[in-house]
Amino acid sequence: MSGPDEPQWELLPDRPEDFFGLEGDYDVLDLKRKYNSFIRKFKPEKFPEEFQKIRAAFESLNDALRYGEPLPSSQHLQFDWSSDTEQSDSELQTELTGSPAADPLYNSSSEATDKGQKTGLLERLKDEPIDVLYAELKQQTSKSPYDYYALAVFADLLPETKGNFAGWILEGLKVHQEEPGLFELLKQYFSQEIPLKELASLLLKTSRIVNSDRFYYLTEKGWDRLIRNAPFKIFRKTLSSCEANLRDHRVDNLLVFYLHILKPAIWKASQKWIDQIFAEVDSHYDELPYWLEREYYLLDLLRQYREQRDTFIQESAIRETIDRAIRNYSVLPESEADLAFLECQLLLISYEDDLLTEFPKLDKQLLNLRILWELIADDVYERVEVYVEYSESEQRDSQIQKLADQLFHENYGRRYQNITEMTSTTYVLLFLASIISIIYLIFRMFSSFWSSLLYIGLIVLTNFIFFILAALSSNWLRDRYYRAGWRFEIMRFFQTCWLPLDEVAEGLEALNGTKKDDIEYEELDEIANLMRLDPGLFIYVTAQRLLHASH
User: Which is higher by pLDDT, 495 or 410?
Assistant: First the structure.
């Protein structure tokens, strides 16, 4: 079976399911896991050709699964069509010179007729000029799907009609509605680098002919290019005009499209437009597939971040680095976004102590950022992880034990223990003095009942107030020592240990209350909780783990 270690390249492009080793019932998440396992090995910067093949196979399956379309291997269409228009034209030009070349092999209800037409057309190409054949084919009253394909290729080769490839495919779809071969050709055409002015016009023309909800599946790649490269007002106007032409009231494809396009649109669109799209999605939230719920959650966090973005940045180089990484992740193509995110981790690690100082404590704004950063990092981690040698259980426990010793027996830890011991001793002495005083006053109650009772009440109240103040000062002292020293020692620990932060925190909690060399570990659970609530430490640890995983 094909896998990352032994890919069966001969299965592409016709059998992407077999290439990824998928069988039976599988969904988008299953496909993504398989895809990630391949691109961990075949990274775009090292294996550009292999990566492009893997990416094309993934996109063909991913698009079909997301939009509920027939999978590529089950379609009644098999042809050898390049994703590059120029390559297709050059192949046809080799036919003109008499050299053998691959030509689309079209299987439809009119297969025999089309095959005969194709054979005759290719034979005539050897002796007759393209413009003559183009004019003759154009005048035919009845045209097969293959005729429209031939007209599209001829039009792209002739100087006076160059650029009309998609126009003829659309004409074919007008006659042969949603014919799978022409439909797929147009979908591939939308994947090309179409000039923006032509793209907006083509999207509008397509909406008039393919006016069902399949329009979103067909044109998604075109919208990706438009939202990233054109002013937002052009995108918004084009989308509004196209949707006015659609006559399908189903919302399945609409929801998939909106959640796909929102990711880059959040950075360009007006707040009003974003709120309208979210309101539309929210009104049909119960109809979202389960695998889209995580995407919706991520987009909602991006929306919240965008609303607080100006407040967050505050002319800080560190915060601008984080902001740039989040934006790049949203607007760049996946492979470029991953690389940009990893470059950001290098910068963040270089800030070291300044990174922790920049985020002294967790507030509501930073809590949303921490969750958003974790979702983005997890997504990138799944694609970049090459091989991470996790420590054995005993070695991991030994590392966490060493951290606990460092926190409590060195520098800040030793001073913190001295202060807490002094506080505890003071409280015990006060408590004993209070007990003695109360006993003394009880014996005096026979001679002065009310005054003794008043003194006893004052002593109890004093102890209660002291207990509250001691608890509050203990929390304040622990937080102060964590901010001033412990978090920096923990940061140094993660420079050589690439365990997840939560795993280390759980390990410290497990040590809480245990003894070593007659010394009892106390309050490790509180330190673990402070670690989890530390946004600067989390960002630093995430950066270390990502860079270690990707080498």
Answer: 495
